[in-house]
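Researcher: Let's try something more involved. This one mixes different molecule types, so please make sure each is placed in the same coordinate frame as the others.
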Amino acid sequence: AQSVSQHNHHVILSEAASLELGCNYSYGGTVNLFWYVQYPGQHLQLLLKYFSGDPLVKGIKGFEAEFIKSKFSFNLRKPSVQWSDTAEYFCAVNPTTSGTYKYIFGTGTRLKVLA
Amino acid sequence: DTEVTQTPKHLVMGMTNKKSLKCEQHMGHRAMYWYKQKAKKPPELMFVYSYEKLSINESVPSRFSPECPNSSLLNLHLHALQPEDSALYLCASSPAPLNTEAFFGQGTRLTVV
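Model: All components are placed in one shared frame. Result:
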């Protein structure tokens, strides 16, 4: 079955610490990959996306992610977090099987950044 | 306009009620989605409409009935729900064909009493 795993369910960091959130997916075909963020009381917003090309993608607010095909991974990174990064982060996969419009979400990681 | 608008924002309904959730987008997107999100859980896909036709039903109970009257609107009709159906219902849209991201609305917080 297609699934998306996020290993860190809760992460607490101090401001200026570096962040890395793991994401692995189980799907053998071609996929599009996303990280979404959900700030408290707000809707899901796209942080970054990968479709093809350079496996290191940069998104908004200083976030980046690296696609490692051999590891079926798409980890999210930020060199220095801020208090305003406190939110829930979801990895999502869109298998590109013909005619399939599916965005499958991981279990999410709650990040709390201490000021 | 890059918004997906959902109404109402909050809804409380009894188990014998019939209600509808509405979703609207004016981005020209031809794929629209309903997701269900329980507290502290990820969004779970319910339905996908592609070019106004239902393309995916993730084995959702028949008490949830989707409708796509035109390319901008998506409804979710609710009837005889159970308390465990209480959740945040998210609408999303994306351009077609693939290789695009989905845009999400703020959701409708549904409570079934």
